[in-house]
Amino acid sequence: MSASNGQVAGAVRTDAARVSGAVKVYGSGDTAVRALDGVDVGFPAGRFTAIMGPSGSGKSTLMHCAAGLDTLTSGAAFIGDTELGALDDRRLTLLRRDRIGFVFQAFNLVPTLTVAENITLPMDLAGTRGDREWTEALIDVVGLRDRLHHRPAELSGGQQQRVAVARAFAGQPDVVFADEPTGNLDSRAGEEVLGLLGRAVRGMGRTVVMVTHDPVAAAHADEVVFLADGRLMDRMESPTADRVLDRLKAFDTKSAARSGTSATMPAARSTEGTRP
Ligand SMILES: Nc1ncnc2c1ncn2[C@@H]1O[C@H](COP(=O)(O)OP(=O)(O)OP(=O)(O)O)[C@@H](O)[C@H]1O
């Protein structure tokens, strides 16, 4: 069942994660919100994909359902060949622990653990030692070797997010989902974190799916998928911040016209210095 969509340079890519006919309805009756309205999208292995769209378009819902943090109302979500809806709670927890890495806006480090302990936490919880060489390489890539015995409170926001990035990749998961990973960072620290995500994909063969409202952040990805009103509207290869912003503006105008309200544009940083 592992779908392979994109033909890239003659090679067929396998999807590390995908959803098929994904519908997510929050609430019921008059107050029901259709956050995902029949989405089919794959996130190819070995690629950095950004999910973008206006506020409320369903980006976080799509990520949470694709990552097994939330369940679909109908349709199916897959990590590789594994359909998440077919798993009981225990198996789903194990799959999230062993095959998925997460980076959140709020870092979510354990304050009482050192940097080194935070990075190896997923392996420690799994009772495995992990790949020592890989972990050592990661520590160098994120530039935290001289901070290994510090606690999160002793680090800057950017450093804390770099710990979270190292933790997400430590167990060599099939895919790392990042939800607004630069949302709490200034632009310089944000660029560093985005650069790390890009290097993990291009230099270390990992897979990243990132939700962002920031066209500058999305320009770090290999491809952007656009959502509007819970539907997949478009995909863009080799994005630049300016092209992403233009595309978003078009969706926003359409959805404002439909609802008869003024549009909510995502807060965009300057689009100078587009593609890294
Ligand atoms: N737990 C929930 N209960 C009810 N409605 C929800 C819930 N979570 C999200 N929604 C609604 O579903 C729709 C999609 O929300 P979602 O958070 O996925 O959008 P988003 O594109 O990530 O938005 P933003 O960019 O503002 O974070 C919105 O209309 C939102 O209000």
TrEMBL record:
Ranges for region Disordered: 252-276
Source organism superkingdom: Bacteria
Domain ABC transporter: 17-254
Cited InterPro entries: AAA+_ATPase, ABC_transporter-like_ATP-bd, ABC_transporter-like_CS, ABC_transpr_LolD-like, MacB-like_ATP-bd, P-loop_NTPase
Span of the signal peptide: none
Entry keyword set: ATP-binding, Nucleotide-binding, Transport
Gene Ontology CC terms, in alphabetical order: membrane protein complex; plasma membrane
Molecular function in Gene Ontology: ATP binding; ATP hydrolysis activity; transmembrane transporter activity
PANTHER family (alphabetical): ABC TRANSPORTER RELATED, IMPORT ATP-BINDING PROTEIN
Protein's recorded name: Methionine ABC transporter ATP-binding protein
Protein's organism: Streptomyces formicae
